[in-house]
Design a protein that fits this description.
alpha+beta, 7-stranded mixed sheet, 6-stranded mixed sheet, 548 residues
Length: 548
């Protein structure tokens, strides 16, 4: 019986307890945003009127794209957090409210303009009436000389004409305004009737410790945001470092504009789950650089290419860069069938603070902001691959690029104030030196010619032996000495029956594995130098082999 009495008492008091809980709606705006390559963490803070005891704070005006698991509430100590719940509000719609407010603002502005024009027309009508009355009065009580009549007629005529035209112009303006008002009102009706984008709300149940104005901070994660870096790199002279400007291209489509917010750029791959991730073993293996086959790649004749790939000057092929960021098994066509394991470089997580508050509108387009400037120490070299094109390129070689706060991205290259092209910076590479091409220098010329006296084709038993030779001539037309690197190649046999023999390479350096030949030449002003590359290929005469 006592238990039943207790239950009845609690049941009777429940409406009182529920009605006693205070609810307070507070609209919030983003204050700080940490943008990741995919997603963003939004931080905000609001002032809340704390009352002693339980109360509910409803944070409104949020995006409906919040990851519910990521919501975090921060207390300033004046209240205890009892419960947090994120909900989607289909009644208070973000885009509907924003669009309605925009349309109402335009309608109000046009109505004001119509009112102004109507007042001017009223003033013009008064002036016209004044002219008519004075025209009738003059000449009724006294005679007017012909001269005075002419003057009065001119005054009346010119004023009446200008005022009538001004009245007509303003009436047409009012008509245009009213037509535009009709369109805006129709558009407003459509917005009100159409289904818009829902908003998000966070309901926070708290227990206030005392009556005061407290501070509540909160953060949440959204997926519909991203950023990626680009760079402007300028060559200003051989005795000067490269100048670099860092840009962040930020995109967000959260339906909420980020207005005057603090922006932090992070390279971290976010994991917003509350569950700690599992640490997998870190297996090491031999690294094999990715080299596309001749049939799979396409030759390039320029050192500066678009950002979808990387120009490999050593081989002259366009190498795709879309390799998954995990350990990959690669089967080399030249191997005996064993798989080679390589582990890609692991990038360190970095954060960059944008110096000034930024406004990032909610649209499916990039907003570009600057997040840094600096210099890069570089050495310079002139490089050419005459087999692919008779051009000499100015190459900047950056040895300490790991300390330059670079991330993988597109770099726009400038020779002083002249734009020369784009290059893709790959910070996951295993090279100590980063090469950037600043385009062709026409003051150095190079030519690759086939030497007919070197070329011959002979038959020996069941084999054919072909000999091929080229002469490469390079000239420095500058008024000062330069260092230049010239690249060519000896073919590599993939069959034991195809035998390649190097006959001459003018003291160049030959890489046995790749067949790449490099000459490092010092050229004085107006000096010309020549190098020779000559080789033979022996193969079965019943086969066909392209030897050049």
């Amino acid at each position: 019986m006592k238990i039943i009495s207790y239950i009845l008492v609690i049941f009777m008091m429940l409406p009182i307890l529920v009605m006693g809980q205070v609810e307070k709606k507070i609209t919030s705006t983003p204050k700080k945003v940490v943008v990741y390559p995919i997603g963003a963490q939004i931080e905000s803070e609001v002032s809340i009127p704390i009352q002693k005891g339980p109360m509910k704070i409803i944070l409104t005006g949020l995006t409906s794209k919040v990851n519910a698991e990521s919501v975090r509430i921060i207390s300033d100590g004046s209240f205890t957090i009892l419960n947090v719940q994120y909900k989607i509000d289909y009644i208070n719609q973000l885009d509907k409210d924003a669009e309605s407010e925009k349309l109402l603002s335009k309608i109000e502005e046009l109505n004001t303009k119509v009112g102004d024009e109507e007042i001017w027309i009223k003033i013009i009508n008064e002036k016209l009436e004044f002219l008519k009355v004075n025209k009738q009065i003059s000449g009724k009580n006294e005679s007017i000389s012909p001269v005075a009549f002419t003057e009065l007629n001119q005054i009346y005529g010119s004023n009446f004409e200008s005022l009538s035209l001004e009245k007509l112009r303003r009436e047409r303006t009012i008509e245009n305004y009213k037509n535009e008002l009709e369109k805006l009102n129709n558009q407003l009706a459509e917005v009100i009737n159409n289904v818009g984008t829902p908003s998000g709300v966070i309901e926070v149940t708290i227990d206030g410790k005392q009556v005061k104005t407290g501070k509540m901070g909160f953060t949440y994660y959204v997926y519909d945001a991203s950023w990626y870096p680009t760079y402007d790199i300028r060559f200003l002279g051989f005795d000067k470092p490269l100048e670099i400007t860092y840009f962040a291209n930020i995109k967000q489509n959260t339906d909420i504009n980020w207005e005057n917010v603090e922006i932090i750029l992070s390279t971290a791959k976010m994991n917003i789950s509350a569950q700690i991730p599992f640490l997998n073993p870190f297996y090491l293996g031999y690294y094999t650089p990715y080299k596309p086959a001749a049939a799979g790649g396409r030759q390039v004749k320029a050192a500066v290419i678009a950002a979808e790939g990387v120009a490999d000057l050593s081989y002259g092929y366009y190498a795709p860069t879309t390799i998954e960021s995990k350990a990959i098994q690669v089967k080399d066509s030249r191997s005996t069938g064993e798989n080679t394991i390589y582990t890609p470089a692991l990038e360190t997580v970095k954060e960059y603070v944008v110096s000034n508050p930024q406004t990032i509108p909610a649209k499916n387009a990039n907003t570009t902001v600057t997040y840094g400037e600096g210099t890069l120490n570089a050495s310079y070299d002139y490089q050419s691959i005459p087999k692919l094109g008779e051009n000499v390129y100015l190459i900047a070689q950056i040895k300490d690029w790991n300390n330059a706060d670079l991330n993988s991205g597109i770099a726009k290259l400038y020779l002083e104030n002249s734009y020369v092209g784009k290059s893709f910076i790959n910070t996951t590479q295993f090279k100590d030196t980063l090469d950037l091409s600043f385009g062709v220098d026409n003051n150095l010329s190079i030519k690759r010619e086939k030497v007919t006296t070197f070329s011959e084709k002979t038959f020996a038993g069941s084999n054919i032996k072909e000999t091929v030779g080229y002469k490469i001539t390079i000239r420095n037309n500058k008024s000062y000495p330069v260092t230049t690197s010239v690249f060519d190649q000896i073919p590599i046999s993939t069959d034991s029956k195809i035998v390649v023999e190097v006959l001459d390479f003018s003291n160049g350096v030959v890489e046995a594995e790749t067949g790449k030949v490099t000459w490092k030449l010092e050229l004085k002003p107006n000096e010309t130098k020549t190098v020779i590359i000559k080789y033979s290929v022996k193969y079965p005469k019943d086969k066909q082999v392209i030897v050049q």
